[in-house]
Design a protein that fits this description.
The protein is of the alpha/beta class. It is built from 10 helices and 18 strands. The protein has 2 domains: 178 residues, 3-Layer(aba) Sandwich (Rossmann fold); 173 residues, Rossmann fold. The strands form 4 sheets. Strands 10-9-8-11-12-13-18 form a 7-stranded mixed beta sheet, with helices on both faces. A 5-stranded parallel beta sheet has the order 1-4-5-6-7, with helices on both faces. The protein has a 4-stranded mixed beta sheet with strand order 3-2-15-16, covered by helices on one side. α1 crosses α9 and α4 crosses α10. The longest helix has 19 residues.
Length: 387
């Protein structure tokens, strides 16, 4: 039986309101749009969170959108509490939509007496009451197997493929930088990203290279060289996460200084951007960094954590003493960067949510030829601003 659209209920946590609103704004129904359902967040002075659903969810197909980005533990608890609230309110099916899955890099024991925290988080989400998970570009694909419930791991690769198809086409027409895709090389910033880079290179019909990296600490990496030819080439470095920026910055530096790369693009799904990463990227050899909005471009956590007042999200009017999350001032994480450009994944998540809601396959979203019409306006708008 196909579930009808009127039974769909979408909530958002506080981690990425911008993406949640773009996703719901992409839906069209008889009344115009599917809005975010109302939810109240109360933060107590000791740091506890109370979450109250302001919408009837009984028997509904409920989607909770929440990235577990900074502050990771705070946002994770919000997600777990929201899942529990929906379960106890008799929600029919609960899908945790987690555009960025925090703790994904703790997916194996790399030394004795350390946890596999990504498995722990998977167990917590399942125990809280989620019936399925929808996420994007898990740092390690095996994390899907940590869940005992259906888990769809979307990828931004088809979106980047559509973007670079259009960009390289413009560059080829211009003839100043490249004559064909033979002048382009996709680069894996380390051995762990080879599969990602190989798939993108295959789709773009370009060459490929690999940077040799060794991580010395959680905050520092060393780059000793690279495998492949990048001299006088346009380079596309493809990674899933940029945290401090050390990996891609050192990769770009060595490709330019020792490899002789002509122009360096970087594309990345999750822009964590910790520890002054934005400033470091601005000063690096990277010419342009294209990221998605799986993590909010605004930082509101400091403001929220320092107050105990109520915050509401969705189609509800704040009461006296409450604020709508939109009213909470946030600091731009990208700091007006000239090099960093953002591609939205909202329409990909919208299509995935729609497919899950109607009990249809999401496999078309892994094929760039099938998503081209879905994302073409977003891609062309960004390229026009670049060119």
């Amino acid at each position: 039986m196909v579930i009808t659209e009127r039974d769909m209920v979408i909530f958002s946590g506080t981690s990425n309101l911008e993406l949640s609103e773009k996703i719901t704004g992409s839906f069209k129904d008889k009344s115009g749009k599917v809005g975010l359902s109302g939810c109240r967040f109360t933060r107590f002075p000791d740091g506890e969170i109370l979450i109250e659903l302001l919408t009837n969810v009984r028997g509904g197909d409920v989607f909770i959108i929440q990235s577990t980005s900074y502050p990771v533990n705070w946002n994770l608890m919000e997600l777990l509490i929201m899942i529990d609230a929906v379960k106890r309110a008799s929600g029919g099916r609960i899908t945790a939509v987690i555009p960025y899955f925090g703790y994904a890099r703790q997916d194996w024991k790399d030394r004795p007496r350390v946890p596999i925290t990504s498995r722990l988080v998977a167990d917590m989400i399942t125990t809280a009451g989620a019936n399925r998970v929808l996420t994007m570009d898990l740092h390690a694909e095996q994390i899907q197997g940590f869940f005992s419930i259906p888990t769809d791991n979307l990828t931004a690769r088809p979106l980047f493929k559509v973007f670079f198809d259009e960009l390289l086409k413009k560059m080829t027409e211009d003839k100043k930088l490249i004559k064909s895709t033979e002048d382009v090389v996709v680069v894996a910033p380390d051995v762990g990203r080879v599969k990602l880079a190989k798939n993108l290179a295959s789709e773009l019909k370009t060459g490929m290279a690999i940077v040799v990296k060794d991580r010395t600490t959680a905050y520092d990496v060393t780059t000793s060289g690279f495998i492949g030819d990048v001299r006088d080439k346009v380079v596309i470095i493809f990674d899933d996460i940029i945290s401090t920026g050390g990996t891609v910055i050192k990769a770009a530096n060595i490709l330019r200084e020792k490899g002789g790369a002509k122009k360096i693009f970087v594309c990345c799904t999750h822009s964590v951007m910790a520890g002054g990463a934005v400033d470091k990227i601005e000063e690096s050899e990277i010419d342009m960094l294209i990221v998605t909005d799986t993590i909010s471009p605004f930082e509101r956590a400091s403001e929220l954590l320092s107050h105990s007042e109520n915050v509401v999200i969705g189609n509800v009017k704040p009461k006296s003493g409450e604020k709508h999350l939109k009213e909470v001032k946030g600091v731009s994480r990208l700091k007006g960067s000239k090099k960093i450009k953002v591609l939205s994944v909202a329409k990909l998540f919208k299509e995935a949510i729609k497919s899950i809601h109607e009990n249809e396959s999401v496999s078309a979203l892994f094929d760039s030829s099938k998503i081209k019409n879905i994302v073409k306006d977003e891609v062309r708008s960004l390229i026009e601003n670049i060119i």
